[in-house]
Amino acid sequence: MAEQPDLSVHLGRGLCLRSPVMVASGTFGYGFDAPLVDRTALGAIVTKGTTPRAREGNAPTRIAETPSGMLNAIGLQNPGVDHVARIYAPMWAAWDVPVIVNVAGDAVDDYVGVARRLDGVAGVAGLELNISCPNIANGLQFGIDPRPAAQLTTAVRAVTRLPLLVKLTPNVTDIVAVGRAVEDAGADAVSAINTYVGMAIDVRRRRPVLSRGSGGLSGPAIKPLALHAVWQLSAALSIPVVGIGGIMTAADALEFLLAGAAAVQLGTVNYVRPQAAREVRDGIASYLDEHHLGDLGALPIRPARVEAHV
Ligand SMILES: Cc1cc2nc3c(=O)[nH]c(=O)nc-3n(C[C@H](O)[C@H](O)[C@H](O)COP(=O)(O)O)c2cc1C
Above 60 in pLDDT, residue 19? Predict the structure, then answer.
């Protein structure tokens, strides 16, 4: 039998995934809600955005379907970091897949507090700083300006030894400037991208469909935009870029890997096909096999800045 292609990726600081296909924050809960999904087929699970205290999120309506995508304004509903550390993490510690906790907050101290609480907690493999949430008041304050983005990253870096991914917003003029700033501030990787701010209006009721008015647009509609952001970031940064945005199939994921992403996350597709991550992983493996490529490092169509993204 032919040798299986090597699908492993390193995202820095010892975070090693056996597959480049993760599930994205907010679309897979804390990993407990999809019992039929084979967790061992996932590169990693990224949790819902976690804040210092529990949040109920926004009032309904929080989700709306759009052509080729969806709008959401969940508002960071989560049980708070203490619950995550005490109840969820011990269960994750027994799982055969890394769990990365997505972190959110209203102020630097919120992020620092969550990071400090999770540092050294068994079952937590890394942190992803959500500096890009469009669905809460001030949710984008850190992500749209390189300086606050760097200050936040520096502050969190100082209190944790965990691998640190910083998730960027596309709702900016220059995403590369923010990416460079968080790289210089100590991020191990960037995740790109979070949702685009959008809205829908209920013509019959003459008011916005979402209770908050606006929401975050995700799904296939944003894929070309996300791909371009990843293309730009991969060329400019030395740390790995995790590609996110509208990935539905292995071919979509391969576009991101060819554009220079070290790994990808699947979001909206989890609502449509919960087993998508496995299909995408298998499709990437077949592609490598067909093209006689031994590992993912051979994929980027421009030479990667760091060899094999180690
Ligand atoms: C319902 C929903 C909830 C989300 N919640 C979060 C969140 O808590 N934190 C975060 O960083 N991103 C969150 N996202 C953004 C996704 O992780 C992802 O970046 C985005 O949806 C683009 O990927 P996709 O087009 O594959 O869905 C959420 C997305 C959706 C659809």
Answer: yes
Any catalytic annotation for residue 133?
A: yes
Q: Is the CB of 24 under 6 A from ligand 1?
A: yes
Report the CATH number at residue 143. Answer: 3.20.20.70
Q: What spacing in Å lies between the alpha carbon of 266 and ligand 1's midpoint? A: 9
CB atoms within 10 A of CB 237: 22
- Measured in Å, residue 111 CA sits from the centre of ligand 1 at 18
Buried-state track 206-222, b at ≥16 Cβ within 10 A, e below 16 = eebbbebeebbbbbbbb
Q: Ligand 1: which atom is nearest the Cα of residue 191?
A: 19
Q: Is residue 212 part of a domain?
A: no
Nearest-angstrom CA–CA distance, 82 and 58: 21
Comparing CA positions, the residue from 109, 121, 128 lying closest to residue 50 is 128
| Residue nearest atom 28 of ligand 1, based on CA coordinates | 26
Residue 64 forms part of a structural domain: no
pLDDT tens digit sequence for 221-276: 999 999 999 999 999 999 999 999 999 999 999 999 999 999 999 999 999 999 99
